[in-house]
Amino acid sequence: MSELFLVLQMSPEVSAQFIKLGAAFTAVMALFAATWGISKIAKTALEGIARQPETANDLRQAMIVSAALIEGATFFAILICLLILFVV
User: Which of 12, 13, 51, 73 is such that its CA lies 20 to 30 A from the CA of 58?
Assistant: First the structure.
């Protein structure tokens, strides 16, 4: 119990460093999640194109739109993390 009490009474500088560490970790997790999501979209689109080559244009367009939406959300998450890193 006393260790927890000591952690809660950290100096403001140490608390700010932990906030920045958390923001950096969150930015990295957002990038990994976006990478995984876009690769999953590409995998399923390529499997669909392999099964039905005549739908290649439709699948490609849907894949590009989905990847763009994921990237937009990722850029927003990274922007929030950068604001926390450099403004707070």
Answer: 73
